[in-house]
Every structure is written in C-alpha cells, then in structure tokens.
Amino acid sequence: MSVLKPAIFLDRDGTLNIQVIRAGKPYPPQTVDEFTLFPGVPAACAQLAADGYVIIVATNQPDVGRGDQQQSVVEAMHAKLRELVPSITHIEVCYAPGQGIPNPEDYRRKPEPGMLTDAAKNLGLDLTRSWMIGDRWRDIDCGQRAGVRTVFIDFGYAEELRAAPDFTVRNFPEAAAVVRRATTARLD
What is the pLDDT of residues 41-66, one digit of tens each? Predict the structure, then answer.
C-alpha cells in the first residue's frame, strides 16, 4: 500500500504570475510575452517540493471557453511556467466559461473542488495534509470545499472573500513560509 502524499495547489494568475489589473479586478495575461512570474516563486516552490509536497497548479481559464483566448496560448504559458518552475509536477486547467453557461466541466471550475479532488484521486494525494494558495475568493472557497487549508494572497482587489482563509499574506513567498511553518509545527 502506498502512502498518500500532501500537495500544494496553486492558483496561477495573481499567485505565480503577475496579473493584469483593470478597474480593480485581476485578469490573466493575454500573451506568452506578458506571462511573468512574481519574484521568489521558483525558489519558494522548490522549497515546498523539498519539504515533500507535490506542487500542482489549479487554474480556471474561462477565456478559452468563451472564445476570447486560444487554448494553444494558455498551453504555451504553461510550458513556460514548467520551464521556469520545474518543481511544478502537474497543471490542472478548467476551460469552462462559467457565467451560467452549462458545461460538463463545471464541477472542476473553481470555486468547485473538482480540479483538486481529481488530482488527489489520480495522483494519490492526501487532501487532509494539503493546501490551496490563491488570490481570489474562488481559490479559498475551492480549497475549503476540498478540505485543504487555505492561504489568501491579498492584493486588495475590488471583490470580497466569501469564506475566511486559514491565513492571509501579501505575496507567494510569504504564503510558502506560512505553509512551511505550519508543517514544521505539525511535526514538533
């Protein structure tokens, strides 16, 4: 019998890479050239991986489902992300457009927990020892629905959280430090 592994589920835009802000709301970059990581992301992910976490990106990309973005561009961004952050082992993507448009992928679209629960089933992950890190209310709600601890990166967007995160920080390296401290505290 194999032992289930803990994971760190990461939102993409506004968590790992710099988001585009319009009217106080975050949006994904439109081109691979615009896709730029926040400082400290590769090193923080490498530390979490060295601590035994499986590093997984869980990202909604509804612009593809709505026809506003090409899937090939998103996949090229993910190839760049994997190159820049080799400790990322898996990327879960939901292209469902949301906004009331029925889609069989809706159970995977954050705030629903499908991307996390699918990854847990397919990769042998222990959700009770896992985390979700993100910058939107959907990330926090998704993590809570999946039964993982949550860390909210607060950029002061013009939107409110719907559920309280376990921790609130200002950037990804701080989020990684929170996880690492909590992990160490559990082992003591």
Answer: 999 999 999 999 999 999 999 999 88
pTM of the entire structure? Answer: 0.94
Phi-psi region of 37 (alpha: psi -120 to 50; beta: other; left: phi over 0): beta
Give residue 25's pLDDT: 86
Answer whether 177's CB lies under 8 Å from 48's CB. Answer: no
Nearest alpha-carbon partner for 37 in 58, 61, 12:
12
What the block records as the tokens of 118 is: 């699918």
End-to-end CA distance of the chain: 26
Cβ 125 vs Cβ 41: under 8 Å: no
| Active-site residue identified among 13, 135, 139, 141 | 13
Top-confidence residue, 103 or 83: 83
Known catalytic residue: 13?
yes
Catalytic residue among 11, 63, 135, 141: 11
Residue type (1 letter), 73: V
